[in-house]
Amino acid sequence: MRFVSFQSNGFAGVALHVDGGWHGTTSNQPGFPGDLLSLIKSGGTSLSDAAAVLKIAGSIDLDAVEVLPPLSDPGKIVCVGLNYTDHSAESGFKQPDFPTIFGRFNSSLIAHGAPILRPEVSDQLDYEGELVAIIGKPARNVSEAKALDYVAGYSIFNDGSIRDYQFKAPQWTPGKNFDDTGAFGPWFVTADELPPGCVGLRLQTRLNGVVVQDASISDMVFSVARLIEILSSFMTLLPGDVIVTGTPSGVGLARKPPLFMKDGDVCEVEIERIGTLSNPIRDRNGKRELRHA
């Protein structure tokens, strides 16, 4: 099953992919099964029950509604850095023995199709294509062998990073939390539709149609299952929590000369069997107050 979150005429909606199209409803209509976050939190058969309702609902044209992030208000967004050996090397870091973990906040999230905004204070807006795992039930001290039982499904993230702000301090939080830089979507795919942990699937990032990142999810140093084991060893993961699992090599910062995103660019992140997250790049407020020679 794959679900998309959207808004129409001010009302939240959810739709199901059916035979090449989308069928759904909004919160102001009878029989609305609930938004995607509430369905995931409800657990049990909530997603399949919602799918049964949505399958016979009206057709939804995604071009005629506002697509939203699959989850606009997750409880936690846990990001993992340096999770591909080649990316660690290109970034000048020794591959860590423990995941490099940092947080994103909901205020930075945008949806598929929405512009990633380059802030006035920096020209160093970088792309990072990543797999997202979404937790489906409370997880605490979960073993790697059982960890994937706690995953409700998967999506895609572009962890837009303001590099000079990322490295202003040992903690990366500022550079990873500018408003309108965390692209998330285009939809949510339930775990049963994909290989366990998405192992073997291809991740590719394209900037203006040119491939800039290309790797297998199998290349991750810490698999989805291992990440859940580690994260749940020190905190409780709750339904709807989002794990952004890390990016492969090819980021703009590591290139010579650096390749940063600018107004007018389009960045796409595609993961095999999930979909393609596409976002235009725009300057915030439509003009630049910072100029470099």
Describe the protein.
Strands 1, 2, 3, 4, 5, 6, 7, 10, 11, 13 and 16 form an 11-stranded mixed beta sheet that branches. The protein contains 6 helices and 18 strands. It has helices spanning 36-42, 46-55, 85-90, 144-147, 163-166, 224-232; strands at residues 2-8, 11-18, 21-26, 66-67, 77-81, 100-104, 109-111, 116-118, 125-126, 129-135, 151-159, 161-162, 182-190, 202-207, 210-216, 242-244, 266-271, 275-283. It folds into 2 domains: 2-67; 77-286, Fumarylacetoacetase-like, C-terminal domain (Fumarylacetoacetate hydrolase, domain 2), CATH 3.90.850.10. With 293 residues, the chain is an alpha+beta fold. Helix content is 14%, strand content 34%.
What descriptive keywords fit this protein?
293 residues; alpha+beta; eleven-stranded mixed beta sheet; Fumarylacetoacetate hydrolase, domain 2; single chain; globular
